[in-house]
User: Fold these one by one.
Assistant:
Number 1:
Amino acid sequence: MFALRQVAKRFDNGTEALAEVTAEIAPGEFIVLLGPSGCGKSTLLRLLAGLESPSGGEIDWGHGGKPAPGEIGYVFQDPTLLPWADAAANVALPLRLRGVAEAQARARAEAALAQLGLGEFAGMRPRGLSGGMRMRVSIARALVGEPELLLMDEPFAALDELTRQKLQADVHGLWRRSGKTVVFVTHSIYEAAFLASRILMMSPRPGRIAQDFRPRLPEGRERRTSEAYFQLVASLQASVERIMAP
Ligand code: ADP
Ligand code: MG
């Protein structure tokens, strides 16, 4: 689907965020970018979205140019919802900006909210929703345009542990049902182990891909408690200790 070839990013102030990132990402993968703070994960996500250009190497999206608006969904750590608009209007916003008529945009927004388990809450404003629900609205907004590629930048970092686990399970389930390609950034080993079909471990800045894991864990309830899950956590832990060694 797309390929990164020796992608480097040096900012104008001289900061070298990424050095020689090379990877091929196939349609339908759930990629987790795992690495310490400041290693260039968000930078890599912005490059994948076409929001910034690499200073070296190239990104190939598989169809020539940069992705068009609507081809990619982007979820940030902060849900960034409009406080005066209800959940459905927030989710409909990207469609409205693309000229979709209000009634149709609202209907699609309500369907997207229902997919995230918020069918009943379409008329609620963000103030009336919990942190986890606001993040669900934000994910629905990223999915409403039916993007092929979903980019998520530490979306659950501000949530409590149990809410976070529920959202992880729901996003993992959505991914399995939809067949979309997901690139998800986190610095949590446990989150990476639970979510990913593939984990790209990044080294400290300037970021490179230090290790590429393709775990096979059981689906369903035993996913988080299986032997394979704990073995994966241990492997990721060992890898983190290696890359962080002085
Ligand atoms: P991560 O998401 O892994 O924490 P980032 O991609 O945000 O890391 O940042 C990687 C490095 O690049 C950091 O040192 C950060 O300070 C720097 N950086 C990020 N954006 C910019 C920018 N626009 N200009 C200069 N330096 C930046
Ligand atoms: Mg970041």
Number 2:
Amino acid sequence: MGIRFGGDYNPEQWPQEVWAEDLKLMKAAHVTMVTAGIFSWAKVEPRPGAYDFGWFDRVMDGLAGAGIEVCLATMTASPPPWLSRAHPEILPEGPDGQRRWPGGRQHYCPSSPVYREHAVRLVEQLADRYAGHPALALWHVGNEYGCHTRQCFCDVSAADFRRWLRERYETVDALNDAWSTAFWSQAYSDFAEVLPPRAAPTFPNPAQQLDYLRFGDDALRACYLAEKAVLDRRTPGVPVTTNLMPQHKPVDAFAWSTHMDVMALDFYQDPHEPDDHVRAGYAFDLMRSARSGQPWLLLEQAPGAVNWRPRNGPKPPGAMRLWSWQAVAQGADAVLYFQWRQSLGGAEKFHSAMLPHGGTRTRVHREVTALGAEFKALPDIAGTRSRADVALLADWHSWWALELDSKPSTALDHSRIALAHYRPLFEAGVACDVVPPDRELSGYRLVVVPNLYLLTARDATRLATYVRGGGRLVVSFFSGIVDEHDRVHPGGYPAPLRELLGLRVEEFWPLEAGSTVAVEGGPCAGRADLWSEAIDLEGAEALAHFTEGDLAGRPAVTRHAYGRGTVWYLGTRLEPGPLRALLDDVRAHAGVTPVLPDLPEGVQATVREADGGPHAPSRKYTFLLNHRTEAVDVALPRPLSDALAAATGAGSTAPTERITLPARGVAVLTAPEPAAETDEGAEGPASRG
Ligand code: GLA
């Protein structure tokens, strides 16, 4: 089927006369898949238990007739007004006890048995009605879990939390121990006394907050799983997914990934952010890595502007195409948008759509249609995979714990720190996976740990085993400090990593807002910000020192040979230049090279490939993406053809050793003869099998 192309389809917003035109225009725009029914609950169940699927049957039949696949939503993302009127207890409450009223969407408490029962009942109806329907290709459960209601603090949630805690801790003594309740007279004598961490006079218990974040994620996932169980039973073989959000704190993408048949992401680049493609790169790599390289789906993006930022810039010409190809270059097998036809009313009427208010004679619609034609021209990309020599570790539990209150600094922001470490790898053109700490690491030449404040003893041992076996590891500041209950590991910081790193952190020395400190030595001379630490060496060597401030003369960056491998430690956040220099040096040590040598700045290169098996030709695509706003020349190590230009008639198939990418240009390169494929040259080390 190739790369799926299409968007959210909300026909209930339009009279039926429009639907036929929708189908005609979708075909003309090369749409192959739509996500339908996301907000249709009130229309298919206008009164409790009274279902009206007739209109939706016509939608499904029309799409099937047009040969368009449906990613069918379970319609449970926005409960109808009658449900919250009959059962106001389904409405969520904030930590301050304030109820969130209906009138928007996602106004349900994730723990509410009433909400879940009604949702499941609807999903049973849907599954039975559309099982075997020719348009049904995929299920889309809920919508962006935790987007608006991240956590609920109501009494129903409190009772569910106590159940969750009983299952986890069994005895109240174990709970008291895990939550360090000897502190501030917080010891519980009965689970019945436990509440969510509601707004309190001062810092609520951190372990309680951490468990509430875990519980909140589990509660959202329980909603998803309740619906998925129905679908798995009643439509076996139809894959089930839900659209995750990038860097979305309430939802642990790694924990969800084992319950998703295919990963799916919504990503909305901000055209006003000059390098939002790096943030996208991180999110896309995480999606691809979450299910070990399985292709994922870009389930939503904006064709142009969104409506929910303070200022909503349109995507300039070529940007939407470039960023869509970026998703494919990083492993997506689908590019879908929110939404097909731009709404006339409601909160999203100024959000762009594939078919804008201005109709087909609009720049956005022309760009959408042209992109659809491009994906159609290169169907064999679908199903191919990438591999990487570098892994960056990410962990939601550590993120949750890091950003709780009462820390040495509240300026430690997980996403920014992760991106600061990802950026130099992205900019160097290095293929990178983003994986959780419990993933098998031995296949990677280099592992980067941006900041794992919370690290279990077990995961610390795994890192040590990786390095002992010959791995190269980079660990940044304030890592390995607390256990899974936010209790400091005893034995001096960072106790579970001290032997591996060959050092001890004597004292944390966070920097004042806006201040920087000079660091000198080795490849990383420059400045650092945010954080510093007083490091005592215990076997490691200092590569660079602080050269000013309170820690002048003490190590800032260290290196330690451990077993057959090497580990680097950064006791501060190096600014982008010196961090890039250090990571370039570490990569050289680890034998990690970019996808293409001599890649010009601002050009991204990735590889997707498939060996094809005994009966199919092998496929290998090298994607070049010019994120700059001027044309750039890229030298290729050997002659390659631009399959995209050739397939769309925009260029010749002649192999070339030099290609000019226009501003925001894209090329999809293939070797002229499959037989000529070798393991060297353009496809580089990232393709090692
Ligand atoms: C999210 C939602 C969509 C829509 C878009 C608008 O991704 O899932 O329903 O609201 O945002 O950007």
